[in-house]
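tool_log.txt
---
The assistant was asked to compare two proteins side by side. It first ran the structure predictor on the initial sequence, then on the second. Raw inputs and outputs are pasted verbatim so the downstream comparison step can read them without reformatting.
(1)
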Amino acid sequence: MPEIRVLIVDDDPLVRSALAHFVARDPEIDVIGQADNGLDAIEFLSHDLPDVVMMDVQMPEMNGIEATAAISERWPEVRILAVTTLDGSDTVLPMLSAGASGYLLKDSTAESIVTGVREVFNGQSSLSPRIASLLVKHVRTTEPAAGAADALEPLTEREADVLDRLSQGMSNAEIAQSLIVSEGTVKAHLGRIMVKWHVRDRVQILVTAAHAGLVDFR
């Protein structure tokens, strides 16, 4: 019985068909609809809510960045996974900042795309290796926004420890081992950071921390 309901948004019908074929092979994923631009996606969501939206970036009428921002504001429970050919900082960073929980390139394997859908559905993040590297490079070369750190609710010492290890690319299990705590404790700390900063997942924590100059990627 499918448990992950997916909407595919892309202006190329062949790409939509290919993505639908890839993910629907998983017995727990059900493609409940397709849309060819952001406006159509929002219209679809006003009648039927998917769990995950697979969103292209460059589309007519309303692009993926605009649609992601609108969906994240109106339906924050819906997870968005960008699936696109665009890998520049002018699209990756705005897409993640708009609320996408993951960013995969269309040259990813079918297995990687299915895994990405599952990861964002489970509240995790999913980034293609090139996209993760781009995010790190951007943070290293961009000056923090003035006053951005002061605008964020302060973290406790242990929350800051968790954030530091998250910025090093550690998984929850690795963070738990490093801090000698349970994985559940790590998840609880991450949850409190999300509440304090009004973000939804690990990617958004890192994007927010990076803009404020609170993390040092290495």
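(2)
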Amino acid sequence: MMRLLQLRAENYRLFHELSLQPRCRLSFVFGANAAGKTSLLEAIYTLSRGKSFRGSAQAELAGSVGRHWRVTGRVATNEDAPTHHLGVQWQDGMTRLRLDGREATSLDLLDALIVQILEPGMHRMLQDGPTYRRSFLDWGVFHVEPSFLPTWRRYRRALRQRNQVLRQTGSDRQLAVWEPELAASGERLTELRRQHIDALGPAVAARLARLFDEGPWQFELQPGWPQGLTLAEALVRGRDQDRRHGATQMGPHRAEVRIRVNDRGIKHRISRGQQKLLIAAMLLAQSEAVAEAAGRYPILLVDDFGAELAERYQTALLKELQHYPGQVIATAFERSGVLRHIDDASMFHVERGVLRALD
């Protein structure tokens, strides 16, 4: 099982120095508002992705003692494998990533420390445009299917070239040079996405049946071009429209993940608390799909566990987290309600950027 064994941070947000060593598979960090709970999860996320989930510029992560910060960690990918040492450092406007003492890329960190997060901003995945839903889907496909990344790169390269021809008002003949590669990689990319969402749908629906009483659920990929056409055919038919826009209007970069319950859209159908449970179910199902393919359960970060959830929903979500085989690190305002009687978790308290263990 993938485990974060140790996290250290220096001059990161509120933390002058931070040291976290989760003892149990499930950990909770308690503290008041603005005490540093979210920043602690942000540090773990940064160690995995090289950047914040809050969209902050690297300079904004620096604390009060200068324009620099560093996050390091020790990770066990599974019980039999050696541990890995990861590091992300920002100084003098430069970000350096390291893995086991060597210079690394963000993809190296992403593979060494697989992390997903449930945080309040993720309501955008349901409320805003398709970009967030595509990003969620592609994160899973990346970890499940090794051919995804080279296929995505092929598609993006051909898309850039075709768009350049469109901006230069090129001829049909010039457009046709890039369309076979764009169509072939785009069709393959869509098939990988469809396989992933078809596998996720029943697993998400089964979890939602335990979390709250709605259903049946439908999860559908709309590929980004009209049904009944191949992508190659859609590209040819769309040339005039593409010229007017100066960019390719059809393809996987315009795909949408459609989520419905009882054959109705969910945007104004379910409450904020139910939206949180839906996203949790999607993350848990996707994490189990990643574990089945990669042999490692992603580490789940849950920010503000009880927010927007009635006690019965908190109980249901907690039960799902307790049954998840991977590591979970969550934050909450205080140890009360359904969290009061947990005895199988590491407990921490943070105040003004100072973390201490409670157990």
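---
observation on (2): The first strand starts at residue 3 and ends at 12. Residues 224 and 251 are 5 Å apart (CA to CA).
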